[in-house]
Design goal:
This protein has two domains: 4-106 and 413-507, Aspartate Aminotransferase, domain 1 (Alpha-Beta Complex), CATH 3.90.1150; 170-393, Aspartate Aminotransferase, domain 2, CATH 3.40.640. It is built from 16 helices and 18 strands. The chain has helices at residues 30-33, 64-74, 109-112, 121-127, 130-137, 150-156, 175-195, 204-210, 235-239, 245-248, 272-292, 316-328, 397-412, 415-436, 460-469, 492-507; strands at residues 4-8, 14-18, 41-42, 51-52, 95-97, 103-106, 168-172, 222-226, 258-259, 297-302, 332-336, 362-365, 372-376, 442-445, 453-456, 472-473, 475-477, 481-484. It has a seven-stranded mixed sheet, with helices on both faces. Strand 10 (297-302), helix 12 and strand 11 (332-336) form a beta-alpha-beta unit. Helix 5 runs antiparallel to helix 13, helix 6 runs parallel beside helix 13 and helix 11 (272-292) runs parallel beside helix 12. The longest helix has 22 residues, at 415-436. The protein starts with a strand and ends with a helix. Belongs to the class-III pyridoxal-phosphate-dependent aminotransferase family. Pfam families: Aminotran_3. Keywords: Aminotransferase, Pyridoxal phosphate, Transferase. It catalyses: 4-aminobutanoate + 2-oxoglutarate = succinate semialdehyde + L-glutamate.
């Protein structure tokens, strides 16, 4: 790699500024690329001589070896949601491999959770460190027995990239867990305030009624979420998930309100007035629910981009309005950055696009962070007594160490700005396809949002299957959306391969 010098970007992160690189050779046609095997390597701008030159499809997917292994797995594990049996020893960089030797360009990335590519050498090095070994084999119950170096691990990793105004963290194990514990913090914060402060003791009636799941000990409060949103599958988080019925069927749920998420029309510049009206109506509905719903909301939870529900966007103006409404009514704003966080939108945190005058009260994270939790700033969000926000693990030092190594690589290679640049390049290519093939790339969205791009296709499931046959692994969301979730090391040459495959699909129909 060329020598780098470090500068601090507008988001506070160090970014690497490299001297110009030697131009890459022009990559051949898709058909010629598909003849390459996984042993053929190409230069990466970040990890030299590390990747296959392109996809290589040798068999149907799943092939014979995969089918045999899936049948064996199905005897002991539910495989009905299986996408692709994976050989992680052969997967590398932006490419995912299976047991039959098929190598696919992966723009789904384990449901948006791989930041730096498969078998990343820097993360491998971090995984072999003494700190990592210690964290794995001596996994602590963090609330009771935190390691001596826990404060340093947090400050040099998770808190190093904390959103503006949020200087504390509660660590967790997964995205659902992060949202669940954030909701608990919101309920305890609200009840402490209603009692008159954190030093007011619980009454005997509160303690006794809580044991029977009744008020006043069990509060009559709610979390307001949005239609088509997704926040997880645990009991509290599932009550705020509204993306698909299959997530919720048969599971008891809380009587909590939901507001309409703005349904924008695309292209945005051709529907500005209609979209502004839709966002205003959504904010009016939020305000009405905050003031009239029979189970009063103490917090609003929102995704910067509704991911599982169909990749639904709203403008920065909408989110600034949401922040203003919640502050006016003394309600917390929880921003769910589980899928949008860690650089994918061309900002480290997607809500940085909004230019909020006041930061969110809590920001939850997971996926690309490889760990989980929620950031907060107000000391009142720390419960007034120990053991109120608690479980055995309270996160995982090993995963926090991995996130620290990820942060170091993101800074070293300036991957947030890189993702913004590549996203603009990819979006431009997709705009060309949308103009050339009307109806196949409907509602193209994500302009200016890094590689967090999606479009609708009327034959979405067939579209995804066709892409896999041509060597690209893509995911869907909602009813008809094709969502792109490449890794932060995704480059323009990968975008060219992707666009060529997408065009080949629609030309064959």
């Amino acid at each position: 790699m060329s020598a780098c010098r470090a500068l601090r970007g507008s988001n506070g992160l160090l970014r690497a500024v490299s001297s110009p690189r030697v131009a890459r050779p022009v990559v051949g046609s898709l058909e010629s690329r598909r003849r390459f095997t996984a042993s053929t390597r190409t230069m990466s701008s970040f990890y030299p001589s590390w990747e296959p030159e392109g996809p290589s499809v040798k068999t149907e997917i799943p092939g014979p070896k995969s089918k045999a292994a899936i049948a064996e797995l199905d005897e002991v594990f539910d495989t009905r949601s299986l996408n692709m049996l994976t050989d992680y020893t052969k997967s590398v960089g932006n490419y995912i491999a299976d047991p039959d030797g098929n190598v696919l360009l992966d723009v789904y990335a384990q449901i948006a959770s791989i930041p730096l590519g498969y078998n990343n050498p820097a993360l491998r090095k971090a995984a072999q460190s003494d700190d990592m070994i210690n964290g794995i084999i001596n996994r602590p119950a963090l609330g009771n027995f935190p390691p001596t170096e826990w404060a340093d691990i947090l400050k040099s990793g998770i808190l190093k990239v904390a959103p503006r105004g949020l200087n504390q963290v509660f660590t967790a194990m997964a995205g659902s867990d992060a949202n669940e514990t954030a909701y608990k913090a919101a309920f305890m914060w609200r009840r402490q305030r209603e009692r008159g402060g954190p030093n007011v003791e619980f009454t005997e009636e509160e303690m006794n009624s809580a044991m029977n799941n009744q008020s006043p000990g069990a509060s009559q409060l709610s979390i307001l979420s949005f239609k088509t949103g997704f926040h997880g599958r645990l009991f509290g988080s599932l009550s705020t998930t509204r993306s698909k019925p299959i997530h919720k069927l048969d599971i008891p749920a809380f009587d909590w309100p939901q507001a309409t998420f703005p349904q924008l029309k695309y292209p945005l510049d051709q529907h500005a007035a209609e979209n502004a009206a839709a966002e205003r109506a959504a904010l009016d509905e939020v305000e009405r629910l905050l003031t009239t719903y029979h189970v009063p909301p103490c917090a609003v939870v929102v995704e910067p981009i509704q991911s599982e529900g169909g990749d639904n966007h709203a403008t920065a103006s909408f989110f600034r309005g949401l922040r203003e409404v919640t502050r006016r009514h003394g309600v917390l704003l929880i921003v769910d950055e589980v899928q949008t966080g860690v650089g994918a939108t061309g900002r480290f945190w997607a809500h940085e696009h909004w230019d909020l005058p006041h930061p969110p009260d809590m920001v939850t994270f997971s996926k690309k962070a490889q760990t989980a939790g929620y950031y907060f700033g107000d000391p009142a969000l720390r419960p007034n007594k120990p053991y109120r926000q608690f479980n055995t693990w309270m996160g995982d030092p090993a995963r926090a160490l991995l996130f620290r190594a990820i942060i170091d690589e993101v800074e070293k290679h300036d991957l947030v700005r890189h993702t913004e640049k590549v996203g603009n390049y990819l979006f431009g290519k997709l705009e060309g396809l949308a103009a050339k093939y009307p109806g196949e790339f409907e509602n193209l969205r994500g302009k200016g949002m890094g590689t967090f791009i999606a479009f609708d296709n009327p034959r979405r499931d067939q579209f995804l299957a066709a892409a896999k046959k041509l060597g690209v692994n893509i995911g869907g969301s909602g009813q008809s959306a094709v969502r792109l979730r490449p890794m932060l090391i995704f480059e323009e040459k990968h975008a060219d391969i992707l666009v060529e495959v997408l065009e080949k699909i629609v030309k064959s129909w």
